[in-house]
Amino acid sequence: MTRSLEDRVAIVTGAAKGMGGEICLALAREGAHLVLVAREPAPLEALARDVEKLGRRALVAAADVTDEAAVQRVVERTRAGLGGRIDILVNGAGVTGPVETPVWEIKTEDWDHVLTVNVKGTFLPIKHVLPTMIAQRYGKIVNISGTSGLRGYKLRAAYSASKWALRGLTRTVALEAGPHNVNVNALHPGIVDGPRMDRLCREKARTRGWTPEQVRAEYVQEMALRRVTTAGNIADAVVFLVSDASQNMTGQSITVDGGWDV
Description:
Blueprint lengths: L8 E5 L4 H12 L3 E6 L2 H13 L4 E5 L5 H14 L6 E4 L16 H29 L2 E6 L12 H21 L4 E8 L5 H14 L3 H10 L9 H12 L10 E4 L6
Parallel strand pairs: 1-2, 1-4, 2-3, 4-5, 5-6, 6-7
Helix pairs in contact: 1-8, 3-4, 4-5, 6-7
């Protein structure tokens, strides 16, 4: 640990589980205070206790990131409870949507849900955090996208469309916020070990008549490093992007996928 984020204030959406939890703990180890945002309060409260064990403050903010009023309340509570600053925003909230589904079979309501959570749920925190970052002339924003925002992704049209949208949003906001010393980057994880990967393997296996283990093995064979990305790998990349080590990087797409999209 370098304590590269000593006393920075970070809001993390999608904080309750998986990558979000690992990102929060990694930021806390580097000295940041955390505002934990997700829909369900119980996992956030457990995570807050872990953050506090590291000697950092943690505010639990159960909220739906697609609800503008709720997002505004999170920002106001952050400013009131943690000294008026917001230094870091990590937009990690997202859903996977239909799996192994051709575009002509996707239900319109499923399409709308994916785009609303993944795109609107990233736009709203950015919209309401940026005025504070601009006023203090400092800020780091990381949008968690995915390798499906870098290439076509067969049978995942809604998810891929949402991740491509995040890439465009990232680059545009970087241009607008850059003159105010705010860095905005996108992090593109590949397949990340955990419940989402397990679900994806099960769905693919069901459609193909395979076992989930066969699907997982196929993914691994497509990776240059022959190993699956972990939540910890993603958290390490986030720490880099929100630290001063990346001070002259903005509008970029950083991929952490074990060499899957090479």
